[in-house]
Design goal:
The chain has 287 residues and is of the alpha/beta class. 41% of the residues lie in helices and 14% in strands. It has a single domain, classed as TIM Barrel (Alpha-Beta Barrel). The N terminus is likely disordered. The structure holds zinc ion.
Length: 287
Amino acid sequence: MNKSLDKKGLLGAHLSIAKGFDKALYEAQNLGCTTLQIFTKNANSWREKDISPKKIKEFAKAKQQTGIQIVASHTAYLINLASKDRGIRTKSIHALKNELLRSAKLELSFVVLHPGSHNGAGEKEGIRLLAESINVIFDQVSENIPLLLLETTAGQGTSLGQQFQQLAAIMEKVTPQKNVGICMDTSHIFAAGYDIRTQKSYNHTMDAFESAVGFRHLHLFHLNDSKKELGSRIDRHEHIGKGFIGSDAFKYIMNDPRFFHIPKIIETPKEDNMDQINLELLKKLVD
Ligand SMILES: [Zn+2]
């Protein structure tokens, strides 16, 4: 394997499981992906879904056949572990616990979670409730679960996780800490006010992450451009190089030796063959 292929490393997309869990892996392979992200259930519903042993077996077989070993799941959007509403929190704990168990059955590597919103209770209280909820789950599930990744957020409304320091504060309160890590979404950090458009601003943002959280806790990238401007606090993904971030930022990430080993996944809009075009562009950005 030459050096530039090495750098392209693990690159993939979020793909649908509508046609089957195993089909998502084969589709990923057709797109040239070496990693994948999926929802293990409907992302906009509380309804839970069991995965049959047959489907688990088919998925394991597809993993072997495609060679795609690192797969992440993204949690449902309704989950809010930081909610001051006890009912919502209880439902959320139940949902995340099931997500971790389901993902463990599929032998996924990561479960990506939006840290949630404090809904006016304040940042400190939100962080406390979130960490407490995660700890309740970790108390109930066995050791053998995927790594839970807190995703950086755009900071819409009262959502937590738009500042690196907040993510650090959450992680600090979670036990065991080895069960959690971070997923960095480029469109979210940009919307939250972290600039990455020039080499200088990129370095500045990454230094801020390193000092607040530490790269050792970074396990996954979501590579998305942004339909909204820097600091807009609005979460709208755009195709790579077509938004307000621009392609330079993705060039810095793809060529940053600190991140060669970290899987990178696009969650760009599903239009025509844009997944293929976005992935090819990212590969081309590698020096
Ligand atoms: Zn994301």
